[in-house]
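Sanity check record (used in CI):
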Amino acid sequence: MARSRSSSRSSDSSSDAGSKRQWLFTRFVHSRIWHSSSKVDHKTAPNETSALLDAHRPGGEEGGQLKAAPEANSKTRGIIWGALTLIFIVGLVLLLFFQHLLVDSFYSWLGVLPRDPVLAALVILDKAPVIDGHIDLPIITRFKYANNASAIDLASPMPGHVDIPRLREGKVGGFFWSVYVACADPDEEGEDFINATWSVRDTLEQIDISRLLIEKYPDTFQFAVSTKDIKSAITHGKIASLLGIEGGHQLGNSIGAIRQYHALGVRYVTLTHTCHNAFADSCGFFDGITPLHGGLSSLGRSLIDEMNRLGVLVDLSHTSDETAKQALKYSKAPVIWSHSSARAIHNVPRNVPDDILRLVGTGEGQQDAVVMVNFAPFFVAKPGNATVEAVADHVEHIASVTGKQYVGIGSDYDGIPDTPVGLEDVSKYPALIAELYKRGWNKYELAGLTGGNFLRVFEGAEKVAKALQAAGTVPQYDLYEKRKDIPRIEL
Ligand SMILES: [Zn+2]
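Expected output for Dipeptidase:
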């Protein structure tokens, strides 16, 4: 216990530095605003003071009159001191009783955050916008518009939780477009997972519609495949648009497929959805399901090797606890939970339990990761109790176990039938930031939550991929043992 406490302290301080670095990046983006306001302070204050002093310098024009009329001088001095005293008293009263209004009116000049939580949230999000790990907009476009990009108007109100005006209102700087295809019916799929051959076709169609919509709105979206792309998009006022695949079943049991998905821009794969697949065990949905492999299969370990080599993030949302534990240990690169909350706050298999959260970090036996909190009411609280405060409870619980630098946001908007009170759509992220600000989170910690923590993890995976490729690591060629359609080659 002592060891884990001290390692958590040291990782806290190192990640504080990390959070500050991320904050500094966002400050860099807006440095001109901050610098221009501080320049005004320094330039004007001394000039006003010196003008006042010059007017009363002995030997000056007034000084000459003073010699001639000492009584008039004394009267003038009395008026000036009286006025100054009055200004001082008024200033003191304002400072004592209306500090809140003063700070919130001049926060940018004072270089501090507004005290009003909503105003503070907006200021923080202007510098560190939200990067959401999981948004299901592409599944809405499939089911409501048959993936016809010309029939979809993202600039007008959309039927779900996401459209451009609301993304802008919510201060979104980037999100993963979830390229989701449902698990096959178990009877149709068969126990060997080899019958649902449409999974790869449908995944390609979902990649296609995502990319078409990203291209359709070049003033809003910027396709992104790296941390460099995300930062560039945010710097230019665009919404970085990334692709994530929600289930290993969408690979058609083929490791070759991940290479081609990567080439099309996919940067995470959730190892499972609600069904087991050839690579790993799922946690199912509400009640959990009987394990098949006992975590990762040997093909699943090869898949992780290939994802590490390519720089595709391993996503552990939807996986069984055993899969998550094994993947955390096995992956050479940091991992994510693209949309999962805390099981200690609401006990469903889709949420992450504390014993797994304790494996997250930079200490011995830990792996760097970010748990991006899901807003789905049935994962947040008992029916009727899902609110923005309840979501904040999940964020705070995860942070209390892992440290604040390991939490992010993965709303699941457009993939959930209803939403928590106060977080009705993508325009409402500021409400969550305001709630956490009220609870004492500082701007560095909040900038980490909104996107900085995810950027650190993604950057970590990019570095691992670069190192593996530089070392000449060969691609994985393992075949799923149940496939009979291609010959085995003995090497
Ligand atoms: Zn999901």
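Residues 1-15, 26-67 have pLDDT under 50 and may be disordered. If this sentence no longer matches the regenerated tokens, the check is flagged for review.
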